[in-house]
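Hi support team,

I'm opening this ticket because the web form for multi-chain structure prediction keeps timing out on my end. I have pasted the exact lines I submitted so you can reproduce it. The total is 720 residues across two entries, so I didn't expect it to be a heavy job. Is there a limit I'm missing, or should I split the entries? Thanks in advance, R.K.
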Amino acid sequence: MLETVTLERRQGAGAVRAALTYAGALALGLALSLAVLVAAGVPTGALFNELVVQVFLSPAGLARTVTMATPMMLGALAAALCLRLKFWNIGIEGQLWLGAICATAVALYDIGGPLRLPLMMVAAMAGGALWILPSALLKMWLGVSEVIVTLLMSNIAFLLLQHLLFGPFRDPTFNFPTSPVFGEAEKLARFGWGDVNGGLVLALVAVALAALALGRLRYGYAARFVGDNPKAALALGFPAGRVLLLSILAGGAMAGLAGGVIVAGTEYRLTQAVGLNMTFNGIVIAALARNAPGWIPLVALFIAGLYVAGASLKVFYGVSEGIVLIAQGIILLVLVTAQFVTTYRVRLARGVVA
Amino acid sequence: MTAFPKLPRRALLAASLAAGLTQALPLAAFEIQGEPKVAFIYAATARDGGWNEALDNARMAVEAQLGLEIATVESVPEEATALKNAVDLFTGRGFNVIVATGYGYSEGVLEAAKAHPDVAFVNASGATNAANLEGFYTRTYQGWYLAGMAAGATSESGKIGIIAGFPVGVVNWDVNAFALGAQAVNPEVETTVVYTNSWWDPVKEGEVAQALLDQGVDVIGNNLSSAAPFIAAEKAGAKSVGFQLDMSQHAPEGHLTSVVFHWDEYLVPTLAALQDGSWEPSEWGAFPGMADGTVGITPLSDDVPDEVKAQIEETAEAIKAGTFEVFAGPVVAQDGTVVVPEGEVLDDGGLWGMEFLVEGVKGTLN
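Hello R.K., no limit was hit. The queue was backed up. Here is the completed structure from your submission:
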């Protein structure tokens, strides 16, 4: 007697059911993460204070969370815009570094006069788009896996970043591998609330534009079609190539802008640590938001909150920062599993298999 | 505490960086509100077997001697935002003394000091100072000169090597002093330097050590913290020189000596001064040396010939007494230019800004 396992796509998995599964999975993921924290030695009584009050309710804590979430929104857009077309952008960090490099170059070489700051942001987007371009073209022309190319392009970007920081961009004052500090005209404005800065406006505008383009415009429809079935889309006369390229470049540009927002909004200089972990964070946020731009700010806030809480857990309870990644991983795993179960039905068919 | 010599170049730095804050501030005692609540911020793990561990040992000495309980946080990247966030977390919960521990924190700690004018900051190997911030380091080149003498005397191939982190002044002076010390006992010795451009990369450090050994180097100085170079040297039967802590455990056979920090000699008096309200941060930073006990070398191995041992001890005494200077002219750079003319001594500004390698050193500053 053999058993065969078949997966059947559930027909008409209702919105209510999907939402309930999502919420349930989120709660389960959080509960498991809390258990890990308690096991790591965080007193139960401190959990609410550290994870909720200090992160979302206290003004200073919320400011830290929002600041951290700002580039994450853009990093998540970089993942989501590409993922919509089944293009796995594993090189968000590389595009981010190029964006940061280009923005820094505009600042250091005093380009653009009174338009310096806008030019920095445009340069950042151009840098990110430029860096993802080879992966897009190689994929479209030769069918080379974008997973490999985007990932390896990140390594090249990091070497370029190091080269610049140890060479032409190095701050002569300290001789440490960071760029000189930007001038006042090269910094995004702050709102007097922690380090929250103009980057937040840019990120929210980008999110709104992406939501609009995907939800309301013809482009969004084409993008979904091309992502699901490029050949059919082409056969039906959709400009599949153009839609694909446009989406990927937009994704790269968002990663680049994240780099620009980090250097001009919080760091005020280029360093080797700019945007670390952004690839992972971007993909996690995009996945949790199910690639819907509208949900990205909320999810980014949640993930940023984990990081901010992680920082104080590290400082006050000696818990490794790795715990944040573990919590992220747990929540993501539970959600993905739940999503799978709502989408598919597992059926055991008993019978003789020839 | 001891009045340490002043640093002209750091004065400029402090003036340009802290403009608006330290302007026209007379040297004054800085008082914290209430009892000191102290936090140490490390860039890597505290028990890293090197740089941080030397500071962490001093932290424990402070706790024991002054009866303070000190909070620590590890692995805070040497990045202004990361440091400021850590500082904000501490100050937000009432901490009023922050001990940062890295050159790479220099700018971030200055920004934090400006943002929290009521909190006292000190930063190990920091290059910034303010009314409530004192960078401190020690004249490690003095120890490295002595270690270089031991290396030069025990090398049979006439080739010694040194593995270093970033090519910044505080590192370059160790490299140059190591070479000059070796040349003092063996004028023909060739010193190869390799910069790893990292403070902590055991794999790379091990590989670099192996590459040096393959080139015929038979004494390896490790200016970094990991055990990898010692293990490589020991395996090849080569000699080694350690830094920061006594590294003899990693190379029981070949260990010649280690240049070691005694940060308690600085931190205990400094925190005691903060406790009783008499702390006067030097606007040029604290820059003690062997004379103050903040740096020294561990007992020399028996592989060092007796007459060289005697010579090293004599030199050590002369350094402490101020009658011998490592960077006394003539100091000649790799390309043959005279950096310090005969009869002059490189001043502290020149030390901090040291961007040359001396004659007899093979390698480049990157």
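A quick check on our side: The CA atoms of residues 36 and 96 of chain B lie 6 Å apart. Let us know if the file doesn't open in your viewer.
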